[in-house]
Input
Amino acid sequence: MKLNFKNISILSGTSLMMMACSTNPDSPGHEYVPDMYRSQAIEAYVDYGLVKDVEIEDLKNTMSARKPAEGTIPYYADKDMAEVMMPYTYEKSIKGFMAAMDNKIPSQYLESEEIALAHSEEGKKLYGYFCSHCHGDKGKGDGGVVTVGEFNPPAAYSEGYKSRTLGQIFHVITHGQGAMGSHASQLNKDERWKVALYVRSLQHGDIKYNELLQGRRVGEKEILFSEVNLADINKGIYVTMRKINFAVGSFDLTAQSKAELDTLAGYLLTNSDVLEISGHTDNTGDENSNVVLSQNRAKAVVSYLVSKGIENSRVKAEGFGSSVPVALNSSDEGRARNRRIEFVKI
Ligand code: HEC
Output
C-alpha cells in the first residue's frame, strides 16, 4: 500500500500544518506514526504456539503462512496429530482423486460417534469461513459469490457429488478440483478432515458414523472371553481372547493360550455354533507380513480346536493384519490392544 502523508493537519488549539514531501513519488515520505504505517513484524508460517520447542496452549496451531520445506511436517507433541500431518501423497490428477477414494480418515477422528460429531461441528465453523460463500450454507451451490456475476455455480453436494468419499473431499480441499482452487494453505490437514466430516453431513443429512468406520472398531467396548457366558453371545458380536498371546513374530500357542482354548473347545463340543476366528496385529512393520502372521495365528488356534475334536467346517480362520484396529496405534497400550485373537459367531 502506498500512503501519501503530504498533508496531515493536526488540530491542537491552534492548527499546525506539517508537510512531508519528497520528490520520489514512491517514497512514503516521513513517518509520523510508524506503527500505523507499517504493520508489526509478523512471522508468517511459523507456529506461534511453539517457542523454543515449548508449546503454548493458547497459541497452538495459530495460522502461519510460509510454505514448509518439502517433505517436512509441522512439530506436534501429540503423536496422533503428528501422524495426521504427514505429507499427503495422493497426486493432483484424476488418478490421484480416484485413489483418494480409499484414503481413510485417521482413526482418532472416529474414536466415538460423539467425538466424530464434535469434529464435524468444528468443521462447520471452518466451512462457514472457507466454503459457504461458494457452496452455500447447506452445500446447495448457492453461496453469495454465485449469485453475483457469471460464475459457474459449484454443484450441490446433494446431487452427483453425494457419492464422494471423505478421502476424496479431503483430496479436493487439498489440491482443488476443476474450477475450485486448493485450500491447503488456508486449512491444515487436521482442519481439512474436520471440514470433510461436515461436508459429509451436508451430503447425507448426518455423518453416517457406522459407514465411516469401514470395518474399524476403534472405541468399541471390548467383550472379553473370560467375562462372558458364551451361550448369551449373539451372532455378529466380537469376543476377544486376551489370554492368547504370542511371542513377537511367532504363532506358537503358549500353555496359557491352550488353557483358554480348552474352555472354548469344551463349549463348542456341547453346541452347534460356527465361529470365525480372526488374528489381528498392530500397525508396526510391513503390512503384508502382518497379514500373514495374523492368518498363521488364527490357523494355529483353529488347528488346536480341531485337535480337540471340533469339526473343521465349524471354525474358520481369518487374518486381518492391522486393518481392524480397536484402539489407536500411537501408544504402546493401544498397540497391545490391537494385537489380539477374537472370534465371532457366524
Ligand atoms: C471460490 C469458490 C469455491 C470455494 C471457496 C470452495 N469451492 Fe468447492 N467447488 C467449487 C467449484 C466451482 C466446484 C466444481 C469444480 C469442478 O468440477 O470444476 C467445487 C467442487 C467441490 C467439490 C466436489 C469436487 C468433485 O469433483 O468431487 C467438493 C467436495 C468441494 N468443492 C468442497 C469444498 C470445500 C470443503 C470447500 C471449503 C474448504 C470449498 N469446496 C470451497 C468452488 C468453490
